[in-house]
Amino acid sequence: FHRQYTGSGGIDAERVGNDPLAYMAAIEPFHDNVISVYVKSTKNSLKTIQGKRYILDVYGYPNENGEGPAHYIVCGPSPNKDVYFYKTNDLTHGLFAKWKVSDDAAARIAIADFDYDNVLSFATISYSVPGYYRSANPTINVFYNRLAQRKLRTNKEIQGIKQNHDLLFKVPRPNQALKHQTVAFITINGIILSLDIVPPYSSRHANNTTYIKVLSSRIMWIDSSTELHQLVNHSCAFLCKKKSISPLAIHSDNNRIKTGSEEAL
């Protein structure tokens, strides 16, 4: 096939450690089918940057118009309309792990911390262009990152103190908690009781076996039983009487609860 396009259909730079431009990933050429990365040599200076090109994948062949299946790439497992996630294993030798994460077509990919857990996730919008290619069911989808291993802080934000026969907890002031933290303090008949802090605009795992008593602020989750998948707000004042110990059953579609502008205890 004659290749009538040049350049790149999508390119992005990626930070590794303290290097903001450790490598670049690209689809080559424009409207084509080659996924490649350019890795800098460790001996480079700012004025003489040189890199080595590694081909990660070749998807199919160009059509009669010289167009390949690959359209968009960003850096963060039907070959013509899937989304794949590549993760660096050995940058020096151009080795990457690969996961297919979606069977749907993606015209654009956006990177953001969509569920406020301090880890980047990504969202896609289906390819649907009249007269060119139209997805059967065009949608916007969010794919949450559950691969990252977050580093734990060495200094505990929650501190437990036993005073005579009472157990007291010292917690951060509102809006000063830096990350989700949990302290388990008693197990009764196989049920673990813990005190949790969820910082503002953050989330934590909570499936249908989790029961929560909100002591401070408000938590939210998505519940498909509500009309139009509306966001449902829940707090201790919503279902629990004052000074009661009634727990709140969690029925979250994505097994996550999240906070708004204030931390939750």
Query: What overall form do the CA principal axes indicate?
Result: extended
Give the N-terminus to C-terminus distance in angstroms: 62 Å
How many E-type strands?
21
Widest β-sheet, arrangement of strands: 1-2-3-4
Which parts are unreliable, with pLDDT below 50 for 5 consecutive residues or more? Answer: 149-154, 227-240
Helix content: under 10%
How many distinct folded domains?
Answer: 2
Description:
This protein has 265 residues and is mainly β. It is built from 1 helix and 21 strands. The chain is 2% helix and 41% strand. The strands form 9 sheets. It has a 4-stranded antiparallel β-sheet, with no helix packed on it. A 3-stranded antiparallel β-sheet has the order 7-8-11, with no helix packed on it. A two-stranded antiparallel ribbon has the order 5-6. The radius of gyration is 24 Å and the shape is extended. The protein starts with 9 loop residues before the first strand and ends in a 7-residue tail after the last strand. Residues 4-40 form the Aldos-2-ulose dehydratase beta-propeller domain. InterPro entries: AUDH_Cupin, Beta-prop_AUDH. Residues 157-232 form the Aldos-2-ulose dehydratase/isomerase (AUDH) Cupin domain.
